[in-house]
Amino acid sequence: MPDFGKQQQKDEGEKEFSIQPISEQSDPKFAPFNSHPGPARTNDMPQQEGTKDDRQARKEELNKK
User: Fold this and answer.
1) Taking CA 50 as the corner, what is the angle to CA 46 and CA 47, rounded to the nearest 5 degrees?
2) Superkingdom of this entry's organism (predicted)?
């Protein structure tokens, strides 16, 4: 009894699979600790108005119900 499965493999030939080479160096933008720099921040933030006590008093005044 002929084995058609083996005959078909011989006709098509066995395919050879190889692993693609892995380069030792990776792109730095994909590095785990450098990939996301964090939120955007401006270098020239506006100064806070008044002293800490003034801001606290204004906060309490605005939060009155």
Assistant:
1) 10
2) Eukaryota
Q: pTM value?
A: 0.33
Q: Are 52 and 59 in contact (CB under 8 A)?
A: no
For residue 64, the one-letter residue type is K
N-terminal to C-terminal alpha carbon distance within the chain: 94
The CA–CA distances, whole Å, from 1 to 4, 5, 10, 12, 20 equal 9, 12, 17, 21, 41
pLDDT in tens, the chain (65 residues): 555 555 555 555 667 777 777 766 767 666 666 656 678 888 888 888 899 999 999 999 999 96
